[in-house]
Amino acid sequence: MQLTTESLARAASRRPWRTLAVWIVALIAAAVLSSALLGDALTTGDEFLNNPESKQADALVEAHRGSADSATEFIVVTGPTDVSDPAYEAFVAELQRSVGALGRGVVHHVGSYLTGDGAVSASGHATLLPVTMAGEDHTALTHSAEELVAAVATVTVPEGYEAVVAGPLSLENDFIRLAEEGLQQGETIGIAVALVVLVLVFGAVVAGLVPIVLAIMAIAISLGGAALIGSGFELSFFIVNLITMIGLAVGIDYSLFIVSRYREERSHGLDKREAIARAGATAGKAVFFSGMTVVLALAGMLLLPNTVGRGIGLGAILVVSVAVAASLTLLPAVLHLLGDRIDALHIGRRRSRRSRGRAWDRVSTTVMRRPAVSVALAGGVLLLAAVPFLGLEQGFSGVSTLPDEVGSKQAFLVLEDEFSGGMGSPVEIVVSGRITPEVEASVATLQVSLAGDPAFGPSTVELSPDGELAIVSVTLAGDVARTDAMDTVRRLRTDVIPAAFEGQRVDVLVGGDTAYNVDYLDQTQRFTPIVLLFVLGSSFLLLTVAFRSLVIPAKAIAMNLLSVAAAYGMLVLFFQQGTGPEIFKDIAGWLGFGQVEAIEAGLPLFLFSILFGLSMDYHVFMLSRIRERFDQTGDNAESVAYGLRTTGKLITGAAAIMVAVFAGFAGGPLVGLQQMGFGLAVAVALDATIVRTALVPATMKLLGARNWYLPRWLHWLPEIHIEGPPAVVPVPEPELVGVG
Questions:
Q1: What is the DSSP letter of 693?
Q2: Residue ranges of the alpha helices (H) in 34-167?
Q3: What domains sit in the chain, N to C, each tagged with a CATH number?
Q4: What 8-state DSSP symbol labels residue 427?
């Protein structure tokens, strides 16, 4: 038997208990895998999979020091008196004892000015206690940093004194903690809003619960799959949150489409099993092609040569694939077991399908009466919103963007005032080659240049015992993640170092966190055209096969690009300093959004991959209904109105759920997550309103039968109709339970 979405639905409904048992076993296996493997499979670090300059420099530092990770944290102490005060000395000594008691498995050494290896500020009121952390890898080091912070917190702080921990490890832990809090908030809001919307769309509590349960199952199974994959490859810890976010969005949407089609077919007089099969053949096939479009869009992230990009792509592909599989097999089994009990616990009053479609009929009639004007107005609004995108800058949200109550932020402010803001993450200039007296003179020249540049703090030099390596460590004056810090590293590479080492036969490489940021941003910008070409090309091919048309996929891609560009423009208006009218910044402040100098590096590419796939859901689902009607009637205008009418309520509900899920993430404390949630929510809202209600019907009306143009030389493509003619002649529509 040919494997189709209809045959899958029939097979699952014939053996519902067996199908359900298979999915329950998969769920149990995933739970076991998650509990046993997921913790060790995830890493808080992010690595390049190619070999940029910062990675080469870090490898040389690792060979010299024994660790590629920055394993030095600082306890920043401030007090009301000079460091020579006995009370000050006693407090510092107590801090040393508390941290030293953690043992060599956590810290190797704790220094201070009392033992000659600490630093005292010019004011004499602040000091740094350098702590050399212990750990086999980056994840172990971050755990050690957590214990360090906890040990410092146990020490009784005298009145007027303060002790906080600064450094890349503790900063990373604070970012992770805040990210998890924000994502959990988003998940909670998303599920609550989704349940309300689903109950309103279906008019029944049971029907509203089914998509949520299936989405949660897809998320749980995907986490088990991630744990299994992570046993062989390191995965970013962000994969867990991404799986949850995308799983809620697509899992609920796919189930919503199929459950709705099943109820519609039941209202047309089909028996339960035939209604399930019909839903599988129509909405199920639309879900399949929608899911494959999302997977192709996200596969572009796998082209990025870094663990974060590939982890994001892998996690999203995994959960979308599981959600599609559950919608095509598990959902038909559940529908067979529930039958008409899917409408149990109904709410609201009964309204006919005809009365519920009148609003959408009015919209389509208005738009198609003057299609050219509608295209000009809708396209003009999106183009106007996209204009600020031309001024987009990419960068990183550093410690200065954290809430003031966070320990890392407090420590950074003290460092910036009393020492050097970048002391916790110095720039490492690695000189590789025979360190001759001439090379040493060049190193000294470099240090003089650095000392005369206000962008840099003090520098130190380390020489390897074999005389083949020199490491110049220099601090930056401010937040090492800011754009000016990255510009300083670029200037160091292109101007300062070549001038100091002119004529010397050595390799000079720049490493450290800021250099990593520079290489990451450069890498992302270099690979962006490749990812865009892959996503657009593969999506065009898939949609051409799905709809047997060259015009439909070209229009869908153009409209998606327009809505994504508009979302980028809104992102710049609300978050990027120095762009657009101040009213947008005022609204952003009222919403609690942080104002930054640049949009998070890599976020535009990530948003493109996610949004391009998700927005195609609505296009495929709506266009499939239009094509279905067009095949039956040959009337283009009536088919467009039919497609908008029959999908309007569903797509509105699906979009509302996605917007709620993403908006929940935008309410978190981290600027990067705020940008991600805001961008996703705005793009989905634009796509489900302006694009769906105006651009799609207007362009369909303007082009008429040319929408389905396929040249003769492509007629060999298989006939894969996403929707087909109804299995039975519809009887007059009865009244359904629901809220219009």
A1: I
A2: 39-41, 53-65, 86-100, 138-153
A3: 5-44+173-391+518-713 (1.20.1640.10), 71-166 (3.30.70.360), 426-511 (3.30.70.100)
A4: E
Catalogue the E-assigned strands of 450-609: 456-463, 469-476, 507-511, 599-600
CB neighbours of 409 closer than 8 A, spacing ≥ 6?
A: 174, 399, 400, 402, 403
Structure token pair of residue 226 = 């991630």
Q: Which of 145, 135, 89 is nearest to 112 (CA)?
A: 89
What is the C-alpha separation between 77 and 519, in angstroms, rounded?
A: 34
User: By three-state DSSP, how is residue 73 classified?
Assistant: strand
Helix (H, G, I), strand (E, B) or coil at 154: coil
**What Å distances lie between residue 363 and 5, 366, 408, 686, 693, CA to CA?**
32, 5, 53, 16, 7
Three-class SS state of 72: strand
Q: Report which secondary-structure segment, H or E, holds 541.
A: helix 513-547
Tell me the chain's radius of gyration from C-alpha atoms: 30
Tokens of 721: 């109709």
Q: What is the DSSP pairing of strand 107-110 with strand 235-236?
A: unpaired
Q: Around Cβ 445, how many Cβ atoms within 10 Å?
A: 15
The count of other CB atoms within 10 Å of the CB of residue 505 is 10
Task: Report the alpha-carbon distance of residue 263 to residue 272 in Å, rounded.
Answer: 9
| Residue 387 confidence (pLDDT) | 93
Distance, CA of 567 to CA of 561 (rounded, Å):
10
Q: What is the pLDDT of residues 345-401, one digit of tens each?
A: 777 555 555 545 677 778 878 888 888 999 999 999 999 999 999 999 998 877 777
In angstroms, the CA 554 to CA 464 distance is 60
Which tokens is 438 given? 């001439």
Rounded-to-integer distance, Cα 249 and Cα 614, Å: 9
Q: Read out DSSP for 284-344? A: IHHHHHHHHHHHHHHHGGGGSSBHHHHHHHHHHHHHHHHHHHIIIIIHHHHHHHHGGGGG-
Q: Cα–Cα–Cα angle for 7, 737, 689, nearest 5°?
A: 80
What are the two backbone dihedrals, phi and then psi, of residue 726, each rounded to the nearest 5 degrees? -65, 145
Burial of residue 465 (number of CB atoms within 10 Å: 0-12, 13-18, 19+): exposed
Which pLDDT does position 3 carry in this prediction?
64
What's residue 348's pLDDT?
A: 59
Q: What are φ and ψ of residue 464, in 5° steps?
A: -75, 150
pLDDT of the residue at 68: 46
pLDDT at position 423 is: 64
DSSP calls for 327-352: IIIIHHHHHHHHGGGGG-SB-S--B-
CA 235 to chain CA mean position, Å: 14
Tokens of 404: 């003031």
The confidence score (pLDDT) of residue 21 equals: 96
Cα–Cα dist 620/138, whole Å:
44
Of 270, 276, 261, the C-alpha closest to 338 is: 276
Residue 253 tokens read as 């949407």
**Please, what's the b/e burial string for 644-681 (b: 16 or more CB within 10 A of its CB; e: otherwise)?**
bbbbbbbbbbbbbbbbbbbbbbbbbbbbbbbbbbbbbb
Cα(130)–Cα(466) distance, rounded to whole angstroms? 27
Residues of the chain with pLDDT under 50: 1, 68-70, 355, 721-740
| d(C-alpha 105, C-alpha 143), whole Å | 11
Instruction: For residue 398, give the 3-state DSSP assignment.
Output: coil
Candidates 58, 179, 65, 77; CA nearest to 133 is 65
Q: Of 645, 644, 638, 634, which is closest to residue 705 (Cα–Cα)? A: 634
Euclidean distance between CA atoms 157 and 160, whole angstroms:
8
Q: What are phi and psi of 187, to 5 degrees?
A: -65, -45
Q: How many CA atoms lie within 13 A of 671 on its CB side?
A: 25
Q: Which residue has the tokens 């519920």?
A: 356
Tell me the residue type at 368: M
Give the number of other Cβ atoms within 10 Å of residue 63's Cβ: 12
In the three-class reduction of DSSP (H, G, I as helix; E, B as strand; rest coil), residue 683 is classed as helix
